[in-house]
Amino acid sequence: MHQTPTCGSYCRQKYFRDDYVGMLYVDCDEVYPNIFIGDGTTAKNKDFLKKLGITHVLNTAEGKAFSMVNTNGYFYKDVGIKYMGFQLLDHPSVKISEYFHVAADFIQNAINSNGIVYVHCLMGKSRSSTCVLAYLMIKLGMSAAEALRTVKKKRAIYPNEGFLQQLADLDNFLKKRRYENAWCY
């Protein structure tokens, strides 16, 4: 069984010493077992991702424009990492909620296959954290507040106001669905 390195030994130090590569900047944190959130620079460091045991990458900022991270499935093919990417801008008007269930399914599939997922955007603060929060709510039944507390214990995150509103809407929808399902029995 793979033993995931702790964030204290890798990610929180921000610099990782590798005799082959030298000093490399890394910015990622394990915010929930087998779920890392980080930035785009770290996402491009395939050697580091492999050392962490990353098996899946979810890029919530896929693209070539400013504030995007230019990776795709082909980028990770040589190291055997499964990839999914969304072309999302970090703007309150962006409908990130359209990707909540797809992201949650991708993360859950990674975990179900004993994988470790790295979710990122450019800075690892807004788009990526929003998708991880949605996963915790959809798949693990956490409230929005509980999901935020859980992730903020491990990483400084700052979903924009529009994304927070969409998470609140998801929270209300999921609470209503749980309430209705409770009455079905």
Automatic annotation (TrEMBL):
<feature type="domain" description="Tyrosine-protein phosphatase">
    <location>
        <begin position="27"/>
        <end position="176"/>
    </location>
</feature>
<keyword id="KW-0904">Protein phosphatase</keyword>
<dbReference type="InterPro" id="IPR020422">
    <property type="entry name" value="TYR_PHOSPHATASE_DUAL_dom"/>
</dbReference>
<dbReference type="GO" id="GO:0043409">
    <property type="term" value="P:negative regulation of MAPK cascade"/>
</dbReference>
<keyword id="KW-0378">Hydrolase</keyword>
<dbReference type="InterPro" id="IPR029021">
    <property type="entry name" value="Prot-tyrosine_phosphatase-like"/>
</dbReference>
<dbReference type="InterPro" id="IPR020405">
    <property type="entry name" value="Atypical_DUSP_subfamA"/>
</dbReference>
<dbReference type="InterPro" id="IPR000340">
    <property type="entry name" value="Dual-sp_phosphatase_cat-dom"/>
</dbReference>
<dbReference type="Pfam" id="PF00782">
    <property type="entry name" value="DSPc"/>
</dbReference>
<dbReference type="GO" id="GO:0033549">
    <property type="term" value="F:MAP kinase phosphatase activity"/>
</dbReference>
<dbReference type="GO" id="GO:0008138">
    <property type="term" value="F:protein tyrosine/serine/threonine phosphatase activity"/>
</dbReference>
<dbReference type="GO" id="GO:0004725">
    <property type="term" value="F:protein tyrosine phosphatase activity"/>
</dbReference>
<feature type="domain" description="Tyrosine specific protein phosphatases">
    <location>
        <begin position="97"/>
        <end position="155"/>
    </location>
</feature>
<comment type="function">
    <text>Dual specificity phosphatase able to dephosphorylate phosphotyrosine, phosphoserine and phosphothreonine residues, with a preference for phosphotyrosine as a substrate.</text>
</comment>
<dbReference type="InterPro" id="IPR000387">
    <property type="entry name" value="Tyr_Pase_dom"/>
</dbReference>
<comment type="similarity">
    <text>Belongs to the protein-tyrosine phosphatase family. Non-receptor class dual specificity subfamily.</text>
</comment>
<dbReference type="GO" id="GO:0005737">
    <property type="term" value="C:cytoplasm"/>
</dbReference>
<dbReference type="GO" id="GO:0004722">
    <property type="term" value="F:protein serine/threonine phosphatase activity"/>
</dbReference>
<dbReference type="InterPro" id="IPR016130">
    <property type="entry name" value="Tyr_Pase_AS"/>
</dbReference>
<protein>
    <recommendedName>
        <fullName>Dual specificity protein phosphatase</fullName>
        <ecNumber>3.1.3.16</ecNumber>
        <ecNumber>3.1.3.48</ecNumber>
    </recommendedName>
</protein>
<feature type="active site" description="Phosphocysteine intermediate">
    <location>
        <position position="121"/>
    </location>
</feature>
